[in-house]
Structures are given as structure tokens and as C-alpha cells.
Amino acid sequence: KAVKFVERGFTVVKLRMQIRERNINPANDLTMEYARAVRKAIGDKIEFFVDINNGYTAAKAIEIGKKLRQEIGVNYYEEPVSTQNLHELAQVAEALDIPIIAGEKEYTRWQHRDLMERGKVGIINPDVVKCGGLTEAKKIAAMAQACSKQIVPHNTKPTLSTAAALHFAASISNFGAFMEFVDVDEFTDLMNLMKNNVVFKDGFLQVPNTAGIGIEPDEEKIKRAVIA
Description:
By secondary structure, this protein is of the alpha/beta class. It contains nine helices and eight strands. It has helices at 2-7, 31-42, 58-72, 86-95, 109-117, 133-146, 160-170, 188-191, 219-227, and strands at 12-16, 47-51, 76-78, 100-102, 123-124, 150-151, 200-201, 204-205. Helix 2 (31-42) runs parallel beside helix 3 and helix 3 (58-72) runs parallel beside helix 4 (86-95). The protein is globular, with a radius of gyration of 18 Å.
């Protein structure tokens, strides 16, 4: 999959381990094995980062984070510990020379403020769908700018959410180096329910320039899909 993304023009690839709090510090942790394999497949020129999905304690997150940085050249480290545990999040952020990303599980500006002030994260990734829409996302971005933090929008849907996130990114001055965009091959049926979709070209997602957020659902196709 990583090679497929690179061949299509993507310049950043994320490895999502999905360990999560219920399996914290797993005995059979394959993070390093997978990360080495992906880095070997995509080469050294592609930016590469790892998402642990809240699955480590601070000590384990620091141990793995140092290996990822030194051995593999990982550029970013997403949710290495529970984002609800701000004390441990700060420990990890202060111990590593790699930017920590968090914010997809935070739903208010106050939670994002705590991530920055108490969790010490370097990059905020609010999700426009989850955090209260574009208006609230803009407030979070302004707060992040005051704290010299970049915004990298979290985004797990390839249609309406992506379009909204692109407009959000284009409207702020502290947008980061990339935006999350899922594997569209797995969402072909969903994307076919739209009259149009976001455009990815030459390594970039294009900000829609048509009415509204720029993506229009096909209501007749949706009705037929629901009945089927």
C-alpha cells in the first residue's frame, strides 16, 4: 500500500498501528518491524510517520520514538500515549526531538488548549467533523497560532470531510506540511455516490472552487443505495 501511494504522487506516508489503550504496551509489538519494512519500500526521500493510536505508556513511547527517529528517520509521531493522559503526553514530547501530533479525539477548543499547554504537543490535528465544524476549527487554529503550533487536519473520510478540511486548511496561516487523506480504493462505493470528488494531482489535493464546500452528493444514487 505504501508503494502504491508513492507511485500515485503522495509525498508523505503514515503507518497506523492502531494499538489503542485496551492493548497498551502489547507483548507482540510489531511497530519497528512494520516501520522498517515500509521505510525500505518507499525509500528515504518520502516523509514517513507512525500513528500509535494511544497504545503506549510514556516510557515505551519514548523508547520506540527514539528508535523510529534514529533508525528510520520518522518525521512525526502521532498519539504515542493516551491523549487523555496529558502528564505522560508531555513527558514524551519533552523527551523526543520529533514532533508529536494529537487532537483527533479532542472535541472542544478547551481540550485542544490543554493539549498544547499541558500535553506539550507540537502539532494539532483537529477533525472538522468532530470538533464542531469549520467555525470551531477556526477558533482552535487561532489558538494554536498564538502558541506557535501548526495545524494538520485529521480526516478519515474522502468526500465531504476532505472538502471541508481543505477549505479549513486554505483559510488559516498556520496550516502544516500535509493533510490526512485516506486510501480512496477502499471507499470506491462511497465516492461513487457523489456527483464530483476532490482532485488529487501532482502530489497535492486541490481546494474545491465550486459552490458550497465543493462536493455534491448524488441524492438519487444515495436513495438507490439505501433501498438496495
